Automatic annotation (TrEMBL):
Protein's recorded name: Uncharacterized protein
Source species of the chain: Elasticomyces elasticus
Residue spans of biased composition, Low complexity class: 32-42
Region span, Disordered: 16-43, 250-273
Length: 273
């Protein structure tokens, strides 16, 4: 029998590509520096900074101490690499991101410094997003299925929505600002960026590059899955052929046994007659 080696499917979110957060990929292991992680932390920075300011201010505009209860659940103290690998989620992300007909839907976040007017049901200024409306999602719930009802915010990946502005693609909020060293790292590594306009352009470029990187690795996963499916079909065919051969062998053995018994019976009858 020919032996086949099953090719491993490539886990994407935490282990290879790193999932995109709100227009970016979630942070890879600390100390790494990939375009995907830079994008995630770059784009979501405006969201997390604004949310932090919102949490520190009451609806009347005054401070609301203490803030610990408000901030609890608003940020993640973990990175997607910490989450348990879920093949079903990875496969659903693969199908969504590689679907040529997928559309970018969900409520789009308008940056607080933008003059763009929000459209009801389609977009909202980050400063108008109510903290109380953001779901509290425990780490052990993640990753959330892509069709989870708590996913209402648009992401840069068509067919994928987020639960929080600047949140992880797996669901849940983004990394807490006090744990995120990206702003300092990014500007230190890109000293040519000296204005908000230059930063927005650089961020857009990082977003596009990160999406392409994600799709490239999703295509690699898809290829591995297709190869595994082909190998499984070959193995199934071999199993069926083996079962057929076994049935034929057993049938022939039974026929031979019956013939032998018949010969012995005739011999005894002849000797006794």
């Amino acid at each position: 029998m020919t032996l086949f080696v099953i090719a491993p499917e490539i886990p994407l979110s935490r282990r290879s590509a790193g999932p995109l957060a709100h227009c970016g990929a979630a942070e890879p292991p600390r100390g790494t520096s990939t375009s995907t992680s830079l994008l995630s932390r770059t784009y979501s920075q405006q969201c997390t900074d604004s949310l932090h300011s919102m949490a520190a201010t009451s609806p009347s505009g005054g401070p609301t101490p203490p803030q610990d209860e408000q901030l609890n659940g608003l940020y993640a103290s973990y990175v997607p690499h910490d989450l348990i690998y879920n093949a079903d989620f990875e496969d659903s992300l693969m199908r969504a991101a590689l679907d040529p007909d997928a559309k970018r839907d969900g409520i789009r976040i308008v940056p607080s410094d933008s003059a763009e007017r929000a459209q009801e049901g389609l977009s909202v200024h980050l400063s108008d997003a109510l903290l109380q409306s953001l779901p509290i999602i425990a780490e052990d719930e993640l990753p959330l299925p892509l069709n989870d009802s708590r996913r209402i915010y648009a992401s840069p990946v068509p067919g994928v929505k987020l639960t929080h502005p600047g949140g992880y693609i797996e669901g849940g909020p983004g990394l807490a600002p006090n744990m995120d060293t990206f702003p300092d790292d990014y500007f230190q590594n890109n000293p040519e960026i000296t204005s908000a306009d230059e930063f927005r352009k650089a961020r857009t470029k990082e977003v596009e590059a990160s999406i392409e990187l994600l799709k490239e690795r999703l295509r690699a996963r898809q290829g591995a899955k297709e190869k595994n499916e082909q190998i499984e079909k070959q193995l199934q065919k071999l199993r069926e052929e083996h079962d057929m051969e076994l049935r034929v062998h057993n049938k022939m053995a039974e026929v031979n046994r019956q013939k032998k018994e018949a010969r012995e019976r005739r011999k005894k009858e002849k000797e006794g007659g």
